[in-house]
Model the fold of this input.
Amino acid sequence: MVDVILGLQWGDEGKGKIVDYFAPQYDIIARFQGGPNAGHTLYVEGKKMVLHQIPSGIFHQNKVNVIGNGVVLDPITLKKECEAVAAHGVDVRKNLFISERTNIIIPTHRALDKASELSKGEGKIGSTLKGIGPAYMDKTGRNALRVGDILNPNFKEQYNELRAKHQVLLNNFHFTEDISSWEEEFFEALEFLKTLNVINCEYFINDQISKGKKVLAEGAQGSMLDIDFGTFPFVTSSNTISAGVCTGLGVSPKQINEVMGVTKAYCTRVGGGPFPTELEDATGEELRKIGNEFGATTGRPRRCGWIDLVALRYACMINGVTQVIMTKADVLDAFAELQVCTAYSINGKQTKEVPFQMSKVTIEPVLRSFEGWNTDTTQIKEAAALPGTMGNYINFINSEIGAPVKYVSNGPGRDQIVPL
Ligand code: GDP
Ligand code: IMO
Ligand code: MG
Done:
């Protein structure tokens, strides 16, 4: 049986904290897509940790954490992360497993990401520059190196061949930066990777499932960054939605049980691309300040706006969301009035559907106003103690998106979550 936790917006919904909260109920926590573009924040004994590739169940004893075949893995980042979690007493050789089919990000992928972004000028995606796009291009282009390849005696040859292909592209981009120090670090990190548990993940996971073990699949990014259904071309390069669990771990759709979608009580986006409810004013600035909305991976300020129920309803539909977890509700504590977007107005016509290419049309959000709760909710532990005005806000959201909000997160701490 596999349950899923994934983002319903443009990423950074608080997936890391939520996975960490639910991890004790599972045997295996498995990342199924994305790579070091992700930054999942959680608090361990009060100390902040940001995970990029290691699943957010790593701090729980006796849990198996898996990096699935759908992930693109940067060995350099992985080595650093392993060292950081080891400092908290975690033995990654005991509870971290990596699929041999996981694709590897090589230094020239990062260089290509940078060169490609530079070439786009104003139209750039705002990528995290971690090499994600080029690495997935080599996967679908059938060129990639995978974790299982690193033990091949001819791995260096395979690497040089791919690197040479990349060099031609880099020359076309007139990219001249010296990346030799990245390569040195990369080969050092590969030696470290060889010391970790590399497994045939699809047999492992299915075997565990048949023994009755429970798997929690952890998504990265968000549904609106999905390569197929997101705000293309301003998206990431993987399927971030629940369907990605099957291809990213090698499990059948029949195994998927609960799909838990995480959304903020408002909305943020980092990088370029359409964002219909964006607030480029003092209110947006206040959301950024109170919500501490700065990227966990790149430190960039996040764009902020009101919750978008059109996009959220779409995300619930394509993911088959069975329950919603609303994070950062406490960030709205200070607002006397809240807005929610119930429809888009495009060329004077109202719609509740996400258009084909959001970036090519001008969208005016149709907003509905709600009274704020205007009280400190951060210490609340039970649903009955939540303000009635928050109840109204949530009930309306439930009725619009077609899935029920089952948890409200009211602070970054492990214990700051209220089941409804
Ligand atoms: P992820 O990528 O989805 O895991 O989210 P990030 O870690 O990038 O960003 C979420 C941020 O919000 C982190 O700094 C979390 O510590 C923080 N956070 C998560 N849940 C809550 C919440 O309920 N309230 C507040 N105030 N912060 C939260
Ligand atoms: P988590 O898992 C927020 C955004 C980038 C950019 C676009 C493409 O922490 O929620 P990429 O590097 O993937 O080619 O960038 O996607 N992006 C994210 N935004 N949270 C993330 O991950 C993101 N990962 C990528 O800002 O707009
Ligand atoms: Mg993040």
Summary: The CA atoms of residues 62 and 95 lie 7 Å apart. DSSP finds twelve helices and 20 strands in the chain. The chain has a mean pLDDT of 97. The longest strand covers residues 337-346.
